[in-house]
Amino acid sequence: MSNFKESQLFANNLVVGQSFEGCPTEIGDDKFKGFAHLTGDNHPIHYNDEYAATSRYGRRLAHGLLIVSMSALGATPMSQRLEDSMVAFLEQSSKFLKPVFVGDTLKSIFEVAEVTEKSDGETAFVRLNIRQINQHDEVVAKGHHCYLLKNSTSEK
Fold this sequence. Notes:
Blueprint: E1 19-21, E2 25-26, H1 29-38, H2 49-53, H3 64-71, H4 79-85, E3 86-96, E4 105-117, E5 123-133, E6 139-150
Antiparallel strand pairs: 1-4, 2-4, 3-6, 4-5, 5-6
């Protein structure tokens, strides 16, 4: 018998086709500027309203890596549950379908695409397909994240 903690999301608690919806998160100006600076992307379209107004987008374009990071652990109620059960974060991919701007609100939708138990019986490979949806219910990005997660039987 496992002592399943509600905060944890074990691999063998996941079912292919199961989905999770994250909380809507606004791409705030402070978070955005800090992230663009951190990654060394200092193009004025990311921080200068006057420059952005001359672009075909008309508003400041949000930083792609920030959007990807929001689709990962921080922008979903799964965050702590995944973090507590993760053995390794293996890979991610994202494809942007529409531009995303500072001030937009995004939510992530995760769908379990694959769960493959490893030979050790204690872990499993998990692939989650991810879509990000803006406040107009448009899909702006899609991709996947792959994790190595514990199985609940590995907890004592």
